[in-house]
Specification:
The structure is a homodimer.
Chain A (H helix, E strand, L loop, with lengths): L3 E5 L12 H8 L7 E5 H7 L3 E3 L7 H10 L3 H9 L1 E8 L4 E6 L4 E3 L13 E3 L5 H16 L4 E8 L8 E8 L4 E3 L15 E3 H9 L11 E5 L27
Parallel strand pairs in A: 2-8
Antiparallel strand pairs in A: 1-12, 2-12, 3-7, 4-5, 5-6, 8-9, 10-11
Helix pairs in contact in A: 1-5, 3-4
């Protein structure tokens, strides 16, 4: 297997509603067949109008009660609840609600982001359908650059047991999110029994290495990994979710 | 920020006890100042003699009982218990013991690996001190190649909530495992409040992109990220562990 290159896409303009993200990326970097493009959730959400104003939010009693426990803005908590199926844990110490989002992701504050929004009283929600967002951007890229690519929509999630956030994939198109080696043999001929690799999350993590949190680089190209790019869009990151019945840590 | 390159180190020989891993890597690839070298736990463990024979293992009653619940070899379970502070969950369905290792990692089967050992009745334990292993390999690399590098010792861990394993760092030297942006301002001047990035784990994940589980590439060079490489060895991956009192998912 050869090497891979991770390239930040510099100079993207401010993203607004209905912004063509794929076209903008293709305008900033010469894309090649087999490139995998990781796009930050935040610009995807902005392009889809997933921005809410807190001063127009009227929090209900559950939001007010949870907000008091966690020391959070009740209006923000209302949006966290609106975006979630259930509250998994309340971290009163750090002021974090860990919830299961409507998509099935378990993360802090339903993935809602208040930084970088351009106004104190706005919050950015996760895309409604991140796999659909990835498919749309993939089409935009192919239209703009006439190349076959794969697309990841990524966000920073915390983890159980380990400090620090890592970039993970919340949507993907043109790639199998899970790389399944079960049934294959290792070098000694022994069957690999439990080896399913989260390719999408490993790609997302790699994409975060070439930017800082302050430099505003919302897209990264991973090159040299074209063997992972599929003709079909594939199952998307929904396939990465663990069945709740199968999950020991809820 | 520029781009990064991820390069597999091909052609490493079979690793035996007291093997000089750094020298072997430096013999296979022209290293540069600022390179970050990710080394698979398995070869580190082999070089440190962390291999046990199951036919010489006499399982005690707790191991026998847990083995029956999880459908595992009681001799292997005895080693899992020997390497662990506590059992966190028993996944009877999948035959996995999720334990907290003596280092404080929470992972499947105490990180003990039965594949690729060369004999049916052997198992490879995690290094006793993976941060110490990383420091030793860093010295070996600097001695062999006269360059300043950083070293990660990596292993594949499963996660709560998300399917698939990702490569994470269990030891490091020459790098701050956590990249702390708290207190910094984003592009709009808003303070980043909760942004600690697990740099070590993101580097580990990136390293896994350029090898397959069957090709036996146990070392990978990450290049172009020399700004992360520190003169000191730093705190090691021990700094990445979440304080149990602070952890909502045990």
């Amino acid at each position: 297997m050869g090497g891979a290159t991770v390239l930040p896409v510099e100079g993207l303009p401010e993203v607004t509603l209905t912004f063509n993200i794929g076209k903008a990326i293709a305008g900033q970097i010469q894309l090649e067949d087999g490139d995998i493009i990781a796009v930050s959730q935040k610009i995807v959400s902005k392009s889809e109008g997933r921005v809410v104003r807190l001063d127009e939010t009227d929090p209900g009693p559950e939001a007010v009660s949870l907000a008091a426990r966690a020391g959070k803005d009740p209006r923000l908590v209302q949006h966290i609840l609106d975006e979630s199926r259930s509250v998994i844990r309340v971290d009163e110490e750090r002021g974090i609600l860990i919830t299961e989002t409507s998509h099935g992701f378990i993360c802090a504050n339903a993935g809602i982001d208040q930084s970088n929004t351009g106004a104190e009283d706005e919050a950015i929600l996760l895309p409604l359908d991140p796999d659909g967002s990835a498919r749309r951007i993939r089409v935009e890229l192919e239209t703009a650059a006439s190349v076959r690519t794969a697309v990841l929509v990524t966000d920073s999630f915390g983890r159980a047991w380990r400090q620090g956030q890592v970039e993970v994939a919340i949507g993907c198109a043109g790639i199998q999110p899970l790389d399944d080696w079960r049934g294959e043999k290792d070098q000694r001929g022994r069957e690999l029994t439990a080896t399913v690799i989260s390719l999408a999350d490993q790609l997302a993590a790699a994409s975060d290495l070439v930017r800082s949190k302050t430099d505003g680089v919302p897209a990264v190209v991973l090159r040299g990994l074209g063997h992972f790019v599929t003709e079909d869009d594939g199952p998307g990151c929904a396939a990465q979710l663990r069945d709740p019945a199968d999950d020991l840590f809820r």
